[in-house]
């Protein structure tokens, strides 16, 4: 401030002049910008008003055309009814004339003619009276209708036109709905044709879900050597592998039974090595089983690493790699668990790339989403919860952990990757030919379908047909009417949705049949 005051009067005057010029220029620029904004707003408002006026004129034109069309239809209908009434009046007049002529021809004299004339006059008088009575009744009805409705003749005509317009609009809506449904049916049929053709042209390898493995033998005498003296060999083998050995009358084969597919694979490879080696005794069995377990563990890690390499996923903990490799020996409805995980990973990565998300993270979550299936036979809980717990324990990303835990919506998804993995899992599992049901599960599902249908009132019989894709129900025609039959199909379909798990769709068909019988004697 002291420096500013120390300036000379000339410098001080120049500074003040510059400030005044700057303020004036700023004020003018502000006024110019404000005027330009106002002109732009006025132009936009004028354009909007013009567009609104055009839309109003178009709407009035459409309404006027529709009103003229309805009025024309109403006039045509009224004209047709008037023509019919005129025709009937002409017919009555013609009949009256015929009666008059007949009276003249049949009359034997002046008296008969006069009587016929008087009769005709009386008939005409009665007709006139009847016409007057009908006119009064019509006027009374019109007056009563006007009194009840509170509408004049013109108002009633306008109301009638409005009702006819509304009826025409509803008719158009129903027709549009029918056309849309027909188009959807045609599109669905075409989609089914394309999918069927694709399935026929594509052959996928399947791994059947089973709990047994069969080992071929070089001869029947090998069964005795596997059993050993007093069964010591077979007991040692079962103890070392944890798998049951079934030796029956099956020629040239031994059956290995166990619910753990990894142990069953170790037992199969160990028994094949023992048969090839020829030395079968408890010590040798333990050595071979231990060596096979080590070899298979290395193979499992190689399988997991190969899956990671193929999908370009890095930095996975060794324990998770091992569990991923063990999925090679797990299956669900005939679908190999590792192949399913690889497919889910690929689909998740592709969808993530389309949505501008991280494809690598999506592939990682998709590959590990079923990692819990390698341990769900050893730990309590669902495979999603077990997998999430294991992945979190070994330092996986929070997004991956949430995708593993939430791909079956057991918890609330917190990111888009979880939704992508869930969608890819459904696509891989539900695509045609991906999974197969075991015979036992298939039969139980068919029986359960029929049990659900039989539990409803009025059902006589039910049949699950087309491999469980359709449930056909026959009801008692005396117990249910047509509306109740339609309601029954809806209720049974909802009951099936809530109580059963099944791939695809199940069509519920309710058949109500009435018969009339009699006996000819």
Task: Record the SSE blueprint.
Layout: H1 2-5, H2 9-106, H3 110-149, H4 153-201, E1 212-216, H5 221-227, H6 232-241, E2 244-246, E3 253-257, H7 261-277, H8 282-310, H9 318-326, E4 331-332, E5 335-336, H10 337-354, H11 359-368, H12 383-393, H13 398-406, H14 416-430, H15 439-454, E6 459-465, E7 470-475, H16 482-499, E8 507-512
Parallel strand pairs: 7-8
Antiparallel strand pairs: 1-3, 2-3, 4-5, 6-7
Describe this structure in words.
- The chain is mainly alpha-helical.
- It has helices spanning 2-5, 9-106, 110-149, 153-201, 221-227, 232-241, 261-277, 282-310, 318-326, 337-354, 359-368, 383-393, 398-406, 416-430, 439-454, 482-499, and strands spanning 212-216, 244-246, 253-257, 331-332, 335-336, 459-465, 470-475, 507-512.
- The chain has a three-stranded antiparallel beta sheet with strand order 1-3-2, with helices on one face. A three-stranded mixed beta sheet has the order 6-7-8, with helices on one face.
- A hairpin with a 4-residue loop joins strand 6 and strand 7.
- Mean pLDDT is 78; it is low at 194-209 and 432-437.
**Total strand segments:** 8
The N- to C-terminal Cα distance equals 133 Å
The order of strands across the largest sheet is 1-3-2
Average pLDDT level: 78
Basic shape = flat
DSSP strand content: 5-15%
> In terms of structural class, how would the helical and strand content be classed?
mainly alpha
Biggest sheet descriptor:
3 strands, antiparallel
How many helices? The count is: 16
Low-confidence stretches: 194-209, 432-437
Instruction: Give the proportion of residues in helices.
Output: 55-70%
């Amino acid at each position: 401030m002291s420096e500013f005051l120390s300036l000379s009067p000339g410098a001080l005057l120049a500074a003040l002049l510059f400030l005044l010029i700057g303020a004036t220029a700023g004020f003018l620029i502000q006024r110019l910008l404000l005027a330009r904004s106002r002109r732009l707003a006025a132009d936009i408002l004028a354009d909007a008003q013009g567009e609104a006026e055009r839309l109003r004129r178009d709407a009035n034109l459409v309404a006027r055309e529709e009103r003229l069309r309805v009025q024309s239809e109403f006039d045509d209908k009224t004209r047709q009814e008037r023509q019919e009434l005129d025709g009937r009046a002409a017919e009555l007049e013609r009949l009256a004339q015929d009666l008059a002529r007949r009276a003249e021809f049949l009359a034997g004299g002046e008296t008969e003619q006069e009587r016929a004339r008087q009769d005709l006059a009386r008939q005409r008088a009665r007709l006139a009276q009847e016409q007057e009575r009908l006119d009064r009744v019509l006027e009374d009805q019109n007056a009563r209708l006007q009194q009840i409705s509170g509408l004049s003749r013109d108002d009633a005509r306008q109301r009638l036109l409005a009702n006819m317009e509304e009826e025409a609009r509803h008719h158009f809506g129903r027709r549009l709905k029918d056309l849309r449904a027909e188009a959807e049916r045609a599109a669905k049929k075409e989609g089914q044709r394309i999918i069927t053709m694709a399935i026929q042209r594509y052959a996928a390898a399947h791994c059947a879900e089973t709990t047994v493995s069969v080992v071929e033998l070089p001869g029947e005498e090998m069964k005795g050597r596997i059993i050993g003296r007093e069964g010591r060999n077979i007991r040692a083998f079962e103890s070392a592998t944890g798998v049951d050995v079934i030796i029956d009358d099956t020629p040239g084969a031994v059956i290995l039974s166990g619910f753990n597919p990894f142990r069953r694979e170790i037992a199969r490879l160990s028994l094949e090595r023992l048969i090839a080696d020829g030395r079968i005794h408890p010590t040798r069995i333990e050595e071979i089983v231990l060596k096979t377990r080590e070899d298979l563990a290395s193979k499992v890690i190689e399988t997991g690493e190969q899956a990671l390499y193929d999908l370009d996923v890095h930095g996975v903990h060794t324990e998770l790699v091992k569990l991923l490799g063990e999925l090679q020996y797990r299956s669900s409805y005939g679908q190999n668990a590792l192949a399913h995980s690889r497919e889910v990973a690929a689909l998740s990565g592709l969808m993530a790339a389309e949505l501008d998300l991280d494809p690598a993270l999506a592939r990682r979550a998709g590959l590990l989403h079923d990692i819990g299936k390698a341990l769900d036979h050893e730990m309590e809980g669902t495979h999603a919860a077990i997998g999430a717990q294991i992945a979190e324990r070994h330092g996986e990303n929070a997004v991956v952990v949430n995708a593993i835990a939430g791909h079956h919506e057991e918890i609330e998804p917190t990111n888009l990757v979880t939704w992508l993995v869930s969608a890819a899992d459904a696509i891989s599992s539900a695509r045609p030919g991906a999974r197969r049901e075991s015979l036992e599960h298939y039969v139980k599902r068919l029986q359960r379908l029929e049990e659900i249908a039989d539990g409803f009132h009025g059902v006589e019989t039910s049949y699950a047909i087309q491999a469980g894709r359709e449930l056909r129900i026959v009801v008692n025609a005396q117990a249910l009417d047509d509306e109740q039959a339609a309601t029954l199909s809806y209720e049974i379909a909802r009951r099936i949705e809530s109580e059963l798990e099944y791939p695809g769709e199940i069509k519920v068909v309710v058949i109500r049949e009435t018969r009339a019988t009699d006996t000819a004697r």
